[in-house]
Amino acid sequence: QEKKNISLQFHMSAEAADREAVSGSRPCTPPQASWFEFLLDPSLLEQHLQEQPQKNVKTGLTIPVLNMLLNELLCASRVPPGVKHVDLDLSTLPPTTAMAMLIYNRWAIRTIVLSSFPEKQTKPGPHQLNMMSLVQQEKELTENILSVLREQATDSIMVLEGALNIKKDFYVHTLRTLDLLAADPSTANGETESSTAGLRISADHLHCQVHYDLGGIYFQQGCSDPSVYEKAREHFRKARELLTKVRHYQIIKKLSPKQYMLTFILTFMTQLKCSIDQSNNVTFSLPNSFRHSIELELLHKLQQGDRALEEVCHKLCVCNAVRDALEGGVLSVSFHQLLLKPSKNTISFLLEVCTRSVDKEHRSETNKRKMALFIKLEDVSLAFMVSSHKLFMELLQDEEKKILMEQMRKSSATVNLSAKPLPSFYDIPASASVNISQLEQQLILSLDPRHIQQILIELHGMAERPFWRVNSKWEVPVDYVNVILAIKDNLTRDLVYILMAKGLHCISIKDFAHARQLFTACLELVTEFSPKLRQVMLNELLLMEVRGHEAGAAEGNMERPPPDLVSRVRGYLEMRIHDLPLRQLVGEECVVFMLNWRENEYLTLQVPQSLVNNNPYIKLGQLIASTCKELPGPKESRRTAKELWEVVVQICSVSSQHKRSSDGRVSLLKQRESSMVNEVTAEHISIWPSALANLQSVDVEAVVVTLKELVNYALSLNPNNQLWLCTQADIYFVTNQYSAAMHYYLQAGTVCSDYFTKPVPPDVYNDQVLKRMIKCCSLLNCHTQVAVLCQFLREVDYMTAFKALQEQNSHDSMDSFYDYIWDVTILEYLTCILFKEDSISDQHKAIKAIGQTELNSSNPEEVLQLAAQKRKKKFLQALAKLYF
């Protein structure tokens, strides 16, 4: 009862605090208790605030209390104990379990961020001195919790990042579901773990909060690592987009005036962008009265001093002016005032709106002429800004262009130098610094090798400095940096560096067409003066071709690589050029390429022995290829498997001086040591040794992480391989993730039995797999399922079945599984137990199940087998509905 009261206090206080945050009646600085912000239904806002006194709302809960209560929530939501959250697969967990994890990790991240804010230290008054010891204790406890949260920050970030990949809605416990759990766990389980239990939280709603929290932690981390500010900016941008999407006007009505205007701006900016994207200036879908009334209202707010609306007002003014021009109307005074001192962004936005308003699909001659008259602009100085735009060149007639160009030339020649100087943006012609910055921007954006070369020629004519440093994201492998920077000619050095950096970036985003153009141009350039760089570029071109072919295979194009490509890969592996910088990655991917396309003959028989001895990647590739070749043969001929085993063990071993020191946290993997790995089955497990000579030297955690990654990748290529699915299930089983393990055990049975319409092959559901499924159900407190599964074993496990039927606290729907029991002995035992418990309804169901004629022991064996198969099929299909 005490725990229940604490949970009630936790739920109501956090809910109240967060509802007040939505209502805007609280200061902007979020309190420590605000872990639930924007989660609850806004329609309950006013009612709840009336019920809760404001003084209780504002106090909030301390970090130790919140930590305790959130751990209670994790426990109540059945988050597997002893397992790191980052190791759990959110998509396979029940909705309320996943939501509890996300709530805890969001609170952890927010608490870390809030704890970094400076706090004003208050001096205790005389009446507070006797409280100092308690305050100090709480402070120490808080610091201990914060220390743990900071250590786990990376894991919490990974959990939240993973949540962004889940597109389905989430569900969170309510007071009703928590009360059900407290009153009768067996009744509540079916509801709280179903897909519709508790309060529904839309994916967009939750993603908005997660983006905000990730933005906050990355922004805080930016103090020590400025590169993560970019991550923070991206998360805040996505949070703002989703916030606009989910709030709408129902929430706006309940906001304070300041928050109302902020939400209005965000909503309107989104509508403004949609207006441009959907060519509303072409379809004229928004009436003029609506457009201009919005503009007047925002201008009024701007004149009252709200500078946050300035950009919105300018953009709306431009949109309305373009609409007026297309309708032949008179341009507004506000637009003429805007053009007196336009910013560069305003002109860019104007040109963008003009372009989209006369797009090719809706362009008519009348609209083209109206737009041409509009963009000619009365002020010649403004014409300088738009004369290079493609719209200017397309819409204006040749005669109009000549007249306007002549006016611009005369205006440029008669500039009054004694007049008050204009801002640098209006300098005609532009200053050198402006030209350099514009050229540098073009250099960053261009992917045309000739254009890049021309820009660099112009830049070096203006200033002599290293332009390969213009963009900090231009990176070349460290193996090549010294060779490139040793080029004496500055222009050539910049060009080689930039072409290679842009080519590598294009490969990373799978833009192989542009990568080929850039690398080919770079190859032609370096061939003239550097044989070493020529070979470097040939190697990078080879890597590009290998990745391009592998990318095609991943998309379903399973054609074998052309012989020329295979020959070039062999040539690279056998290449020996003195003092040539070689990237390790190229060698690795060439070996992987040969393995993927079954070039086992080359790796095992044709590759020179000197390469095998000197190149560890070729050695490992040869051992893998040899082992694959020997698999179909008799066990005695599998000589290479043992050698491969020894090499992999050596890779996964750590010397005594490099062993990791304890970080104060107990690792589940280190606790169980290698026994865990031994419990995972695999397709070819029999070819490997069953014991390790030097177990202490093996980094078991590294082995398990590698195994997890390998199985996940294998299933991404072939999600219907029942043996790999069983291996994945075993991994979840030995890491105590029993619900996920059942998911994959059942999935393995599904793919090989056409959703259990056919019997599952005995080599898939062997006794070991069935016993693990029984243990999973037992640890999930689904004891009736345990009793049914005991019948599936080659020899029925009566002792386990009887013990399971005696359990009082079962979380499955007990009587609904009675119809799946076909073993008469188990049914008789069940009936006996139910009569002792005096459960009339359950007695009738058990008697009905045992009284079915097809279960009569006098029936022929084939009749009994048919009855068993029918019940197996229905039971497994029922389990699949529960765990999928």
TrEMBL record:
Pfam families: TPR_INTS8 (PF25756). Keywords: Chromosome, Nucleus. Residues 433-675, 677-883 form the INTS8 TPR repeats domain. Its main location: nucleus. GO terms for biological process: snRNA 3'-end processing. One of its GO terms (cellular component) is chromosome. It is found in: Chromosome; Nucleus. PANTHER family: INTEGRATOR COMPLEX SUBUNIT 8 (PTHR13350:SF1). This is INTS8 TPR repeats domain-containing protein. It comes from Cyprinus carpio. The gene is LOC109056756.
